[in-house]
Amino acid sequence: MRSLLFGLACWPLLRADPYADRVATVTSVPGLVAFWDFTKREAPGARFTAHVPAGAKHDYALDAGNYVRDLWGQGPAASYADFPLLGSGPFGQALRIKAEANPDFRPLLFVPRARLHDTPLDIKGAGRAVTVVVWAIRESGNHALAGIWHEGTDLKEKSTETIAKVERGQRQYALFAGLNKEGAACGHVSENGASSFLNKYALHKCNSAEVAPKVPADADPVTLAKSWRTFAMTFDSRTRELTGWLDGASGDRWLENPQQDRLLAFAANAWLQGRLARIPGLQEGEDPKFPADQYYNPPEETPVKVTVTEEVFADGRQRRAELREYGYTKVKVTLIDGREVDRELVALRLNPWWFPHDLYTPKADGTGGPFTIGRVIHSSRSVGFTGWIGGVAVFDRALTATELARLHTLAATPIAAPTTR
């Protein structure tokens, strides 16, 4: 009898479904829009679909495509066969993004714009927030993991000389594997779909403090099982903070001397132009043609920290230099007898990054970008990220550190692919 009671008590444990439990951990998080685990399909052998909230009208089935063929008219067509499956992962399955040798072949999985426009996945406009989470093993690269990020094919580059279909950028939000900080979780957002600060690229992006190391995609199963990382980005429209998270942790990241950076020098100039424009009259170094909507001036009302770096008394006057750390900038301020006479940008905060705009709203004319996984459409046609992707989730709010840490626990012990799905 005792043995029978023990058996009955254990029966629910024996019937536990780890796959269902893990899916429930993700789908129970408030704000879920879509969650692809590469196990759920329309039917056996058919397209991957997303877990969506109860009553949702869209399951966001993923097509396979080669964007070079679509826009350049070159290269072979892509199919699901171009994404090898691992047979295990945080949710029981994962697909591989390979380092394709053919420059005319850049396969990706995507939800076409026609099937996502104005649906919950089309996160855009005033007051909208977003979180993207991707469980992945990074083999190489620093480019896109997932999001709505059509970089456009109208950029003047060597690769666009043979373009068959020129399209303006249609960027909204996306998660990358680093960009300027390879291996970091990099959130990228845009207010106009196109460029920032008079540079040809979009430059509103953040980078987590920690980075994911490279792991060979063909490593042994034990190594792969230990190598899952959780990349995430959040944009909180209330605080205007864009934050990158790796394994549930964000961390501070600063860029010193941004004027020396190849790309973020443009953000530094946008800071300078905004500062000079507030001073009556035309100032030395001021560009009167610089567009006001591209100034970059994070709040600098109250310093977080002030360090006196110089204090000199001469000819009855006091010269004082202070390093003032604000929420998103570090500024050297020079004062004469307590009056500010100069401000110099010393550092920009990369995590979190201050984004003072709303997410880009494409026109309802079919020109918005698709939601893509594994790659985004971009003019340089580089290989981008390679490795394994074991899950992609999108939420319409900024998840908290606690919620992201909990989602990262799913990466600790991967499971085998369910046999009945």
Give an overview in words.
- The chain has helices spanning 2-14, 18-27, 67-72, 113-116, 221-225, 265-277, 401-408, and strands spanning 32-36, 63-66, 88-89, 95-97, 107-111, 130-140, 144-150, 170-176, 186-189, 229-236, 241-246, 253-256, 305-314, 317-325, 329-336, 339-351, 353-354, 371-373, 386-395, 415-416.
- It contains 7 helices and 20 strands.
- The model is unreliable at 1-15 (pLDDT under 50).
- The strands form 4 sheets. Strands 1, 4, 6, 10, 11, 17 and 19 form a 7-stranded antiparallel β-sheet that branches. It has a 6-stranded antiparallel β-sheet with strand order 2-5-18-7-8-9. The chain has a 5-stranded antiparallel β-sheet with strand order 12-16-15-14-13, with helices on one face.
- It is globular, with a radius of gyration of 24 Å.
- The protein folds into 2 domains: 17-250 and 353-416, Jelly Rolls (Sandwich), CATH 2.60.120.200; 259-343, no CATH class.
The CATH architecture of the largest domain is: Sandwich
Q: In one word, what is the shape?
A: globular
Largest sheet: 7 strands, antiparallel
As a whole number of angstroms, the C-alpha radius of gyration is 24 Å
The count of helical stretches stands at: 7
What share of the residues lie within helices? 10-25%
pLDDT averaged residue by residue: 93
Low-confidence region ranges:
1-15
Order of helices and strands: HHEEHEEEHEEEEHEEEHEEEEEEEHE
Q: In percent terms, what proportion of residues is strand? A: 25-35%
Q: How many domains comprise the coordinates?
A: 2
Helix and strand composition category: alpha+beta
CATH fold description of the largest domain: Jelly Rolls
Please give the alpha-carbon distance between the first and last residues: 37 Å
CATH class of the largest domain, please? Mainly Beta
Number of strands: 20
